[in-house]
TrEMBL record, chains A, B, C, D:
Domain of life according to the entry: Bacteria
Protein's name according to its UniProt entry: Flavin-dependent thymidylate synthase
Source organism of the structure: Pseudodonghicola xiamenensis
Higher taxonomy: Bacteria, Pseudomonadati, Pseudomonadota, Alphaproteobacteria, Rhodobacterales
Annotated family: Belongs to the thymidylate synthase ThyX family.
Class of this enzyme: transferase
EC numbers on record: 2.1.1.148
Amino acid sequence: MPLSPEHQAEIDELRARPQSTLRSTAAGMEGHLYTAYPVLDHGFVRVIDYMGDDAAICQAARVSYGRGTKSVSNDEGLIRYLMRHWHSTPFEMCEIKLHVKLPVFVARQWIRHRTANVNEYSARYSILDREFYIPAPEHVAAQSTVNNQGRGELLEGGEAARVLEILKADSARAYDNYEAMISQDGQQGLARELARMNLPANIYTQWYWKVDLHNLFHFLRLRADAHAQYEIRVYAEEICKLVADWVPFAYKAFEDYRMGGATLSATALDCIRRMVKGEEVTQETSGMSKGEWREFMQVVG
Amino acid sequence: MPLSPEHQAEIDELRARPQSTLRSTAAGMEGHLYTAYPVLDHGFVRVIDYMGDDAAICQAARVSYGRGTKSVSNDEGLIRYLMRHWHSTPFEMCEIKLHVKLPVFVARQWIRHRTANVNEYSARYSILDREFYIPAPEHVAAQSTVNNQGRGELLEGGEAARVLEILKADSARAYDNYEAMISQDGQQGLARELARMNLPANIYTQWYWKVDLHNLFHFLRLRADAHAQYEIRVYAEEICKLVADWVPFAYKAFEDYRMGGATLSATALDCIRRMVKGEEVTQETSGMSKGEWREFMQVVG
Amino acid sequence: MPLSPEHQAEIDELRARPQSTLRSTAAGMEGHLYTAYPVLDHGFVRVIDYMGDDAAICQAARVSYGRGTKSVSNDEGLIRYLMRHWHSTPFEMCEIKLHVKLPVFVARQWIRHRTANVNEYSARYSILDREFYIPAPEHVAAQSTVNNQGRGELLEGGEAARVLEILKADSARAYDNYEAMISQDGQQGLARELARMNLPANIYTQWYWKVDLHNLFHFLRLRADAHAQYEIRVYAEEICKLVADWVPFAYKAFEDYRMGGATLSATALDCIRRMVKGEEVTQETSGMSKGEWREFMQVVG
Amino acid sequence: MPLSPEHQAEIDELRARPQSTLRSTAAGMEGHLYTAYPVLDHGFVRVIDYMGDDAAICQAARVSYGRGTKSVSNDEGLIRYLMRHWHSTPFEMCEIKLHVKLPVFVARQWIRHRTANVNEYSARYSILDREFYIPAPEHVAAQSTVNNQGRGELLEGGEAARVLEILKADSARAYDNYEAMISQDGQQGLARELARMNLPANIYTQWYWKVDLHNLFHFLRLRADAHAQYEIRVYAEEICKLVADWVPFAYKAFEDYRMGGATLSATALDCIRRMVKGEEVTQETSGMSKGEWREFMQVVG
């Protein structure tokens, strides 16, 4: 269960006290505020605050382009135009602040997105809880044989069971020893900043993460992608749902131009022109390597 | 007059429609929202949106430091502690979006603060208005004789009058010619992206500027400083007033530790220790250069 | 003439003194070091320093992917793979430092690329030179009638001549008055930080600009693009030539995947799949707006 | 032993082949290039490349301030002036690229410095080595009783021995199980991206880390500070030695103004003025809290 009763009580209290504001509000987001949406076995994502909406993107674009934006008759058309032409700054005018609970190995990947603000729970100051990510059996997969960085088929029953047994036992023992080392019961107690080094990467941490919409879209494009590791992808997918309700026009444009789109090379575009004219193009006549051709076929095939 | 009637009508309308929100609100900031505070002869600063308040800073800090922050009994004490120990990330959890109208030569200095989001009015797309900054007579000062980058005494009457005459006449002529070049009356009309090059640096531009509180404090420390150029300082001072009402504890800590504080070198600290013990320290015995000693005397003298 | 004799002498001296180093060097770049390549009428671009080469990109990638990169047999293949899959961090491991002289209105566009280091000549401290950009007659174009932000046809003779006359006369007068205001001959002399506001946006400034290769490619993709304003595009094109000699594999991949490539939406990809199968697709049956369809036709037509 | 024989052979080969370059070189740094300086039990720091030197800082400053820098007669004086007045951009004109091997819990702290380029060894792609940080007995300390985030006294013999025993045993078991899970001997083998979650935070990782000198100084000020955790401080101290040889003037100014200096609040400066005049100031009459007064006494006492 991702939320403690105290936590839930705090959320209930916050949700019970609407304030009056002159700021623009996004109705679709107000309904999500503070609610902790479960991700993985102990994690969650919840929205703490947000700034702006679809209209705020257009408002900022109209400051930049002035009368130049008059020709685009409505907000959705303008947002699609901005997305299509990589006018990224108006999307930076929206901001979101999330509270995320996630395993450390996911956090390590996530933090590589540098253009964001972060406050992470510090295991130097405080004691981590006994919460570890243990994959569901349907996610315990073998190393991919075709892709160095991915997983392939599911492990067969016996092997999967052994893996889960190891992960559970090692997590439990590591935490028992963590507690034993910091205990001040009959001993001095090891410094927390040292004791934490015994904890494995599937322990949960949490942070506040604040990011603008342009950089959030960049994060989502990489992490909600089918090639992303499952354990970070589920966070990205949960955030996608929130963003779809927050800025519906922008999210729809993002889906069409980024998530569902593809960047094609000059060579690939040349092949397309030939194919559209009826020419039969093969890998040999394409000018692409085998790997590129395989990826190209997945896009146009 | 910085605001057009249309602009004022838009502000009045926005201020007339409070929304209900579950987000945290800052009462001191709600009172300022949208109002255009005049700066210089045609400029202004107005708050378009904000995220967070003093409590949000503490909330983020408590995620990081967990039980470690329990010892600090109240929000103001915690904020002062964070500021004093350069724990900057909790301040990044607040965000503000401003609409600013400002002369181009001020904008050029301002934009050097890179950690911010900007949408500027584009003179490629749109036509700039005929608005130029002409200094008030009490700001028409001579080049400083002691400081390469500052101004010194006021220009005497006749010289000041000549300067103002030049600035007004050159601005007017530049704009007349700008209009003449882009006019499509009986001619094709020069492209705006080319015509704009004739406009001097005292013409007004405008932008949306969005920044987190940590980076805003950095901006304010440099630009509200007595050594900053007057024309950017007045913007910074206006923003200071808004921030003081938005996050009163954080602003007070900023005033004490940053604006009113000073960074002293190891050499300077050594001198202070000797002086406190009663030793007479002079520039010669201080280990400082003449310039450093003069600055040091201004701090401790 | 972009270079003063003193400047040229300094370059000649620097080029006459090769040093011994253990760092990796790029032969193609050593030949360009310090040379000021002219751009526009008074501008230039010259390389002051660089870090890394094609091999450095691969070296960094191999730290990340370890044995995972063994399957790609050579450096060029690896670099193409990295570029195709948006693995941007290895490209950040190369860095370049340029000295650029450019008109202020170009500098204002350029500086919007925030992930770079800049030292610009300061007109608060120092006096600007009498150098203004005056377009060549073949670049004096009318406002585009189809594109709010671009130029269209060339101005006809008489109109172009009038434009050039205005730009020259206004530049000369503005500079005369700038000099008159700061002169300390028989008067106090206006502070430089004030006098600079009289100078138009076609005056030249200069800066040192340091950027990593990933962010430089992003800059070049936008600014060497056919839709970029001519006056910044010529700088980008000059830099492209330098980069092609510095990191030839990376530059070639950039040309294929970025400059010559295109990002297509999900809707566009669907149309391509239908067209490849022989279906006749029109704007009406495409699901695209007229504007999108026109752009799509330019890519695949 | 931090370096494998293959690694050492690669370094020896690189050091045996000096190249000719026209770039500026720093003699003090050339002597360090590639050499892996050991840190902790298995870690190291080594310089892969660098850009610029003390002269490059001054060169960039002179572009900015033009004739304004003439009054400062020499490079060292100019660098001290820049450091004292927070003119940070000239320091950004130097860049360094390091190869660092470090425990994961140190890497997690380090990566919070966002303005840097990083390529980290990926445990999704590749298999981590069996190398764990085990503290030396003289660093096995208890939780501080006065500071929530630090360590206090050394653990007594028996307790320290138990801690080391736990860390060694848990590391070994975790790695045995990691190997067992990914093994493809008689089973499919768990995906690496999953198996890595079993590894504790004292396992070693490695990365290339590239940063400009301004941001490196910021890192060093925080991480070479006496309050930093010992395990990251030793890396910072090793880097300090390299920087001292690379840019000696800048490093000396950094030591005086940053490492050895202190930022005092307005309240503290007021106390100093009173104390210098001979007044007896106590915590009660200082206007400071007890915590602030204690820190103040450490600075001036």
